[in-house]
Amino acid sequence: xxxLQITHPAPGVAQVLMNRPAxxxxxxxxxxxxxxxxxxxxxxxxxxxxxxxAGSGKHFSAGADLxxxxxxxxxDHDWNLQDARRFAxxxxxxxxxxxxxxxxxxxxxxxxxxxxxxxCDIAIAADNASFAVSEAxxxxxxxxxxxxxxxxxxxxxxxxxxxxxxxIQAGEALAIGMVQQVVALDALDAAVQQAVADLxxxxxxxxxxxxxxxxxxxxxxxxxEARELTAQTIARVRGTDEAREGFTAFLAxxxxxxxxxxxxx
Length: 265
What we know:
Elements: E1 4-10, E2 13-18, H1 29-43, E3 50-55, H2 66-74, H3 77-95, E4 101-105, E5 108-110, H4 112-119, E6 122-126, E7 130-132, H5 146-153, H6 155-164, E8 167-169, H7 170-176, E9 181-183, H8 188-201, H9 204-216, H10 224-238, H11 241-251
Parallel strand pairs: 2-3, 3-4, 4-6, 5-7, 6-9
Antiparallel strand pairs: 1-2, 7-8
Helix pairs in contact: 1-3, 3-4, 4-5, 5-6, 9-10
């Protein structure tokens, strides 16, 4: 791939590295297509349990490449619609990944870079990270990233960030739920590795089921439909081979077969 580097730093782990440091990993049509392809392929790779999304250089992602946006401003409606649909499909591909995803964030995450962070299950930021939903500065709007931003921070915070385009620091991003952990820059890799280790302890199919179920559960009052969905789901999952192995391993005081520590025992 021209814009990405995909590596496997540890068994069960894939890292997707956005590799355009000269433009702070801003993405254009090419990177959008390659991100979509990479996450589609990794979703089908049974050897991959966890996917880490990272940016090379000093910054995570400056969002949309301004030359790409300038081309869009000169194109007709049909071109813009198809282009936006490809961007929307890529973000959905990341958010809907059956494998747990971690965003590793350093430096700036701007515009669509915020969308990438919010589309991942877990976002871990260095204390030098900053975030801005900056589209309105250019006379456009954070439309495609909007659902992921709202899911992460809520409607009022999303509106504030989008309307003001203000840049917030890592501590505020943590406080409003844009990221879930902030660490010193030199501790960022260790924090990501710990999150990966925690994820590898869980049953892989159980994690697929968690993501699928939680996507279907509404916020607010627990309805009869939600109660029935949760009951039906756990009743089905309890009877799986993975569940039987998990309980057997726990009672035998050993690591389950999917746990990286299993073979060491």
